[in-house]
Amino acid sequence: MKSAIILSLALVIAAFGVVPAFAQSSGSFNFNADTTACTDIGGLLGGGTSVTSLKTTMKVSSGNGVALVIRPSAVTGLLTNVSLSGKFGDAITTGLAQAAIQFSVTVTPLSGQAAPRVIPGAPVTYDDRFTQISTNLFGLLAACTDLVPCTFDFNETTLSAHSYDFVVTGLSSGNYGILVSWAPTTNFTAPSKAMACVGPVVVTTEQVKMFNQSIGIAF
Prior knowledge:
By secondary structure, this protein is mainly β. The protein has one domain. It has one helix at about 1-15, and strands at about 30-35, 50-60, 65-85, 95-110, 115-120, 125-135, 150-165, 165-170, 175-190, 195-210. The chain is elongated and about 75 Å long. About 25% of the residues are buried.
């Protein structure tokens, strides 16, 4: 009976091919969190220079298909305060403000390996807002003068939550340094203002095994 079962199993494998091996994750995982929260009370949003959210080291195992998935998740805040002023006789007056936040991931070999591929390789925009106001109203109002200019203000604030997966491929056995950072970008014409902030933020890094399906993944 036992011999018959073994023979039957051998015939099944011969008919349908080798039993596929299932890809498994190595289980490596790391994270960092910053509970600093954004605030827009009175326009008190920080930022202006690049901020590091995670700086750590991951040891990668050997084997084909090893990859890292790095996921920065963050609440973002943007503030754009567009202000105009003018006097009688002015032409069209324009004011603008733009604020944006981008996250970047850098992976550096620490054991003499070749440089890996980070996808996407460019910074990812988590938030971007552009506000512009144009008017010829001041030029039509005789009450608008150099001493008493007419004004027009437009304020807008946005809070959002975002998450994005960075995939790192082309890895080999050894250690890699991982740096996740975010940087604000602002553009405005005085007296308008633009500011940005991030927080709280959680960054996770996980080592996984990739496998190629016969039909692939299409968008």
